[in-house]
Amino acid sequence: MSKPPSKKFAAYPRLNPFGIGKNISAADLIDQSMLAYNGGRLREAAQLLTRKMLPDDGYIGMSLTGALTPAGLGKSCLIPLMKAGFIDWIVSTGANLYHDLHFGLDMQLHSGTPFLDDVALHRDGVIRIYDVLFDYNVLLDTDAFVREVIQGPEFQRPMGTDEFHYLLGKYVVARQKTLGIKDSSVLATAYSCGIPIFTSSPGDSSIGMNVAAMALRDSKLMFDVNRDVNQTAAIVYHAKSTGHTSSVFILGGGSPKNFMLQTEPQIQEVMGIQEKGHDYFLQCTDARPDTGGLSGATPAEAVSWGKVDPDKLPDSVVCYTDSTIALPLLTAYMTARVKPRKLKRLYDQRDVILDRVKARYLATGTVAKVVTSRKIAKRASSVGLKG
Ligand SMILES: NC(=O)c1ccc[n+]([C@@H]2O[C@H](COP(=O)([O-])OP(=O)(O)OC[C@H]3O[C@@H](n4cnc5c(N)ncnc54)[C@H](O)[C@@H]3O)[C@@H](O)[C@H]2O)c1
To answer: Against a cut of 0.90, is the pTM above it?
Structure first.
């Protein structure tokens, strides 16, 4: 008979894993055998998602960096999560959306090896993303698709990147119908599900490169980055002001991580609206915190900026692992443990949501220095005044 746990370990369950059997599900594998180190963090991430972030219709924003769609994670993970109502809004690198188009247009990418002669690959017209290989024509055909689509009249004006991706997604859906395929593209799924997708650096991808080249012809398409900054803040304000939690699910780091997190300082520090920060923070990354870069910045550091609610810091999870390992496991876990949610279709409400935060900002915001209730800010502003 095992001894009862001593009081000093009362808060910590005994580390006593099950033996892994041949029929174990991914969700049970995570719960029963990932008990320490980054395995433990992955289990905490899965449980944070299913027990705190997803319940009560909480809002979940996902940021995407790293070459995730070329690895097939759009089809295998992101599309099922979006269709299940588990992702409400997205900030992605342009690269992930560009490479998503290959799948939407039914082009072929191949599982290869990183140990190839790149000079020979270049000679043979083969593109390599680590161990993913594809023909140079995949790039050329995707570029042509983007250019042909954005020639259309509905693209001839400035617009937020969420609107741009929505319209682009509409054309991918049309192409999928012609090709007789479905559930192959994140952009197409976002269009169908009304999920807004933003890009924080719209010029920094092949999509942006093609948009820029078309501006040298007669295209009037421009990206309204101010709208993106305000629209993302508006989504978070909408979540909080309607009594919902706001969670961030960060894959990688980079500019999309900040773009998603800066919504809270935009609301508090710039618009002068009282708010406490995102409720739940989950990041899967390989980036270290000690370089001072934002990619590796911890949720505790984000608290100091007002990005994360200090009261919720104990719930935050950073899992130091490759997203190509974490995301399929987390997708399997969420799908097994949580019923699909009703789609919020935030894209359909974009004007109403923006108008709401604008009205509040114009009522309470200032051009002069913002008055804040943060005690620490009061202390900081009095430094130097007395002496
Ligand atoms: N053809 C294209 O359009 C193209 C191709 C590649 C990159 N880009 C552009 O370059 C910029 C940077 O792209 P990026 O996201 O590839 O790079 P990045 O290297 O800046 O990655 C961002 C962060 O995510 C982390 N990360 C990356 N992959 C990860 C993984 N598998 N698991 C865990 N963490 C991971 C990195 O360590 C880093 O901290 C973007 O603006 C993108 O659009 C464009």
So the answer is: yes
